[in-house]
Fold this protein.
Amino acid sequence: MLKYTMNRLIHLVPVLFIVSVLAFGMIRFLPGDVLDILAGEENSSDPAIRAAFMKEYGLDKPIYVQYLKWVRRVVRGDFGKSMVTRRPIATELFERIPATAYLALVGIGISLVIAIPLGTLAAVKRNTIVDYVSQTTSLFGISIPEFWFAIMAILLFSLYLGWLPSSAYYSPFEDFGKSLRHLLLPAAAIGFRQAAITTRLTRSSMLDEVRKEYVDTARALGLPEPKVIYKYTLRNAMIPTLTISGLQLAQLLGGTIIIEQIFAWPGIGYAIYQAVVARDYPLLQAGVLVLGTIVVLINLLVDLMYRVLNPRVRLS
């Protein structure tokens, strides 16, 4: 286990190198020019002002020199300063990561709380009304875009019923009750769709497991049916569910831009969106690198969790 973990950590180095090269290079091909934003409309055509900004941010150097200087700073933990706000990028990003992580984790939690019992029950009660309701609900959830569900949730629970607020973010460490009220709608908008996907996967995985010989053996030995289903079968069936949930979490940490915009949620996805609009190269590069690192680490954690759920899984 330790050897496998160390090998995977070593493999992170070339992966992160590729991510950094792609982030640094591809961002340069975005349309528009950050110098126009920095200099303003009146001064954007002034060569002296443009040259001053280029020198200040090192844009007058060859691209490979810019990349090497950027990598050296990143290794030291220095992501530079935002071209737009002039604040340290580390501050810009790491102030927003807790909000996105909070939203993503609760969204995935809602997804699993719904999907695992519903998918398991649908498999155990196959071809019954429970199974049909489960499949219909999951199909409905997959078919609905998150942004549409989010808007409908705001209209119903915030505008018409007035039960929940429609925007803003509060830290759970400052006021947990208020934080939870502001979190429920965006987390439900995320979790409902993810639950639909995970429910179908859990049902399919459970159906594969209940047909295997060890299940028949356990029943023949007289073990109670709940113990056969929930202690043995479900544990093995959770491996695909864990995989998709880990990938969903990685996706949510970097892909909640639309939800964050709808609910005015100050997360890292919205910060990256603002950086794209403003052509803020340093902030965008750092954001992509941070998200890439998070995705890789989550995938590593998912692989390691395989061993916890099923000791027979060999890690090599």
Remarks:
- The chain has two domains: 19-95+269-316, 97-266.
- The first helix runs from residue 2 to 27.
- The mean pLDDT is 78.
- The chain is about 75% helix and 0% strand.
